[in-house]
Every structure is written in C-alpha cells, then in structure tokens.
Amino acid sequence: MRTLCALVAAASLASAEPLLADFEAPDAATAWTADAGEWARVAAPARSGTGALRWKTPKEGTKLQFSGLKGDLTKNRAIRFFAWLEGTVDRDLTLRVHSKGGDFWRRFSLRPQVWSEIVIPFYQFREDASPDWRKAEGLEIVARKPLSVVLDDLALVEGGNLPQIEPSPALVERIFPSGELKVAMSDNFRVFTDAPLEPSAITDRLEEGLARFRKVLGVEDPLEWPVTLVIRRTKEEYQATAVETSRDIYGGELAAPQAGGFTFYEYSFTSYDEKAGATRPVFLHEACHQLVSRLLKFRGANGAMWIEEGLCYFMQNEFTPIENAKEEALKMLANEKRPRLASFDARQRIDSGAENLTAFLVTHYILKGPHADKWKDFVEALRENDTNLVKAVEDAFGVKPETFEKEYEEYTIKWAAEK
Prior knowledge:
By secondary structure, the chain is of the alpha+beta class. It has helices at 168-175, 199-217, 235-250, 281-296, 304-319, 325-333, 343-346, 353-368, 375-384, 389-397, 401-417, and strands at residues 19-21, 32-34, 38-42, 52-57, 63-71, 76-85, 91-99, 102-110, 115-121, 126-129, 136-143, 147-158, 182-185, 189-193, 227-232, 261-264, 267-271.
C-alpha cells in the first residue's frame, strides 16, 4: 500500500504553519528547479489562494527540487502538501528529503483530476546511507513516469517528541487490534508482545546489552529515540507482521523472513520461544542491529551488512555463548570453499551460515585480537571507505588484506582450540 491522500487521518495531523511554499508571490517558483521539463507558478488550479506550481516533465526519472527545506526537522512529525494530477491516469512519485549523510525517501500515489492531500509522517520514510533529520538540505520530487502535476501549500506538520518512530498507540492498533498485549518501555527500548513474556525483563536485558555495547565499542552518543522490538507468539505471526509493516509503513514488498528475527529501519521483529523465554538471544541480536546502524552509522552501500551481523553476533555471544561456535569455526576454516574476506566488499547481503560465522569471527578477532586498541581507527576507516573491509584494514591496521586474513585465521584456530 503506497502513500495516498488521507493515508494518515487528517484529524491526527492538523494544519501546519508556517507554510514552506504557498506560491502566492509572483517569484515563488524561483526556489524550485528541475533537471527536465517545465515548471512555473500558475493561477489555476490552486488549492488555496491565487497561486500554485505546475510541473510538466516529458520523461521518467526527472527531479523537481526545492531548496527551502533546511536545518533541524526533529520538532516536526510529517511533511504535508497538496497535489493535482493532470491527465487521466494514476501516477506514482517519490518524495526524497536530502540530509547530511544520506537521504530519506517515500513513494506516494496520485489520482487524476482531484486535489490529493499528501501527509507523510517522518517515521514512514525509508533511508539511504546514514541520514540525519537534524541536518536537512532540501527535498525533491521524482517523477517515475512522464506527467503534469500542480503542487500547493507545502508545509511541515509540527509537534511530536519522537517523530522518527511510529507512535505506540498507532503501532498497537495496527499490529495488535485485539488489544491483547504487554508493553514495556525503558529509557532506550520499547517492547511490544502478545507472547507469555514479561516485557520489562526484556527491556532490562536490552539496557544491560546497550551498556555493554557502549563499553566494548567505546560509543557515548545517546540514542535519540528508543529501539522498537516486536515479539509475536509464533514464527508465522512474526513473519506476517514483518511483511505487513514493510507494506503498510514503507510501501515496500518483503518476502517472509526465514531467520529467527528480522530488522529493517526502526523495527525489529521476532517470536517467542518457550524454552529460552525472556533470555532468547535473538532479542538482543535484533536490537543490536539498530544500535549498530544508529550509533556507529554503518549504512554504506558496499558490503554494509557484514559489520552489522558481525557485531550483533559478537554482542549476542557476550551474553549467551553461541552454541558450537568454536567447533563450527574449525570445521569452516578447514574447508577450501570457506568465505574469503574480499567477498564482503561486493556483497550487500550475508546469506549463508558460513558467511554469518565469518562475520562474527572477524569481528571477534578485531575486538579481542592484536588490533583491539585500534578499533576506533577501524570504525573511522570503515565510514570513510563505505564499510569496505579490505580498504579499512589497510588504513587502520597498516597491513595487507592477505596478511590480515592469514593472521585472523591463525588467531581463530588458536581461540577455537581453547577449552
């Protein structure tokens, strides 16, 4: 379900002032630019007042850009504007907010010959790289196909102390419409579950995990909004919830996750296990994905997943030793077809058990081995090299990748042989 007019109840997002663009002034169109087509202030149609902006583009992928959206947006909770699509066919567009470190984006749909109110809460934007709502640098609308559209009354909707996450009442209504659930909130985490669990025991454990995360990784920055963890009673319910959230919140299609937990953007999902109870390792593992992406800001396009998986397994192992990890490490390192570190430069996803194990073992070596005192240098090198492991190793540790891999394997074999 893509964003349509009235996707969010109008009553919950009252009109915002001041308007960023109402197109009343004769020179109102000068703050806008496009890389193709025509754009100009027009007198009609206008949703209000005496002016609006018409944009006509003859090809797909054209961008209409507005430079007037800058600075800290965190006191606001949504972007709102009105659009009149000319012609007779529905069209999809993408709204992209540029920020220092990356972009936020959301696709929305328009119907022809009617004023559509587009209201997109900040928590419904998807992310590219490591964007920051505090450092906005403009917005653009991207045409997915040729079109002619009239825009009016662009504004920010003010209010809301946690604009980056779905409000708890909305999440409860969307995922748990029966109201049969338990909720626990701590300083840095919020847990929602309909399983036979005490969620406060989970938030306590997650807070302990965060403290350990900070100590081990040397991270002091605060979490500006809490991590959200949703625990369903069964695996099937967890899978369905992840798929529905992807569709309803972000307008995306997601295959049912097969792993024990799944995290994307500001949501972590998993299910109940009677034997493990509140100490199920996947709870900490999935929450850690959000900690890594938000506190360490590893969201590069090149091999971004390996460092997240490695750190999440490392932190999981700090609390609950991974079963048979040493035996599996020895077995994997004896296999000629084992994953090589260079593969983590070209792979965005880590799909196999051997790749996950390798990510954990490499992270373990970096944090526990002879290069541990250069961890912060390694973090900075990863950021500068778009999470490229090979380049970061050379920059931070001053060793060639093949030397690093040899030393990592020797260290791991020795570690795995310990009782």
